[in-house]
Amino acid sequence: MTKKLIAYFSRADENYFGGAIRYIEVGNTEIVVNKIAEMMEADIFKIEMKTPYSKEYKACIEEAKIHKFEDKRPELVSIPDSVDEYDTLILAYPNYWGTMPMAVFTFLDAFDFSGKTILPICTNEGSGMGISENDIRKLCPNSKVEKGLSLIGSEVENSDKEIENWLKLNENKKTR
């Protein structure tokens, strides 16, 4: 049995939901992670920035845009001591400017994921995975990055079956 780590970035506060901005107390990606935690045994690590993005949606996307286009690596609140004990990393994040939030880049930069399997999950409102899978491959060139799961953020409450099927598909790949 492989040991799994779920590392995720999620943002509550004002969020975009198919044309409207709404305030939420738990981010969509965190909802997905909680669902996964009910389906499998895994350790969980929340990727949090020391200086979080604004609670207001429009300000947040501008801050995220600057981080992306300046290739910034925001400082994190904490980081695990090691990921050596894990065989599989489930990496969950929202789509920010066509890829992962830069805090996820900071997290991936901190470790050597050689020989590990990475399973990306991206919440979005229609923009899909963007180039995040390619970015993960560039940051973790000696890991096996499987096909990610794209979930519509405003529909994550009803995504159990989709998540379960994706997890089973990836578990079956390991037994072949």
What does this molecule look like?
The chain is an alpha/beta fold and 176 residues long. It has a single domain, classed as 3-Layer(aba) Sandwich (Rossmann fold). Helix content is 32%, strand content 23%. Strand 2 (13-17) and strand 3 (20-24) form a beta hairpin. The relative contact order is 0.18. Residues 26-167 form the Flavodoxin-like domain. InterPro entries: Flavodoxin/NO_synth, Flavoprotein-like_sf. This is Flavodoxin. One of its GO terms (molecular function) is FMN binding.
Please supply descriptive tags for the structure shown above.
176 residues; 5 helices; Rossmann fold; alpha/beta; 32% helix; two-stranded antiparallel sheet; six-stranded parallel β-sheet; globular; 23% strand
Summarize the structure.
The chain has 176 residues and is an alpha/beta fold. It has helices at residues 28-39, 57-69, 102-109, 132-139, 160-175; strands at residues 4-8, 13-17, 20-24, 43-46, 88-94, 117-124, 144-145, 149-152. The strands form two sheets. Strands 1, 4, 5, 6, 7 and 8 form a six-stranded parallel β-sheet that branches. It has a two-stranded antiparallel sheet with strand order 2-3.
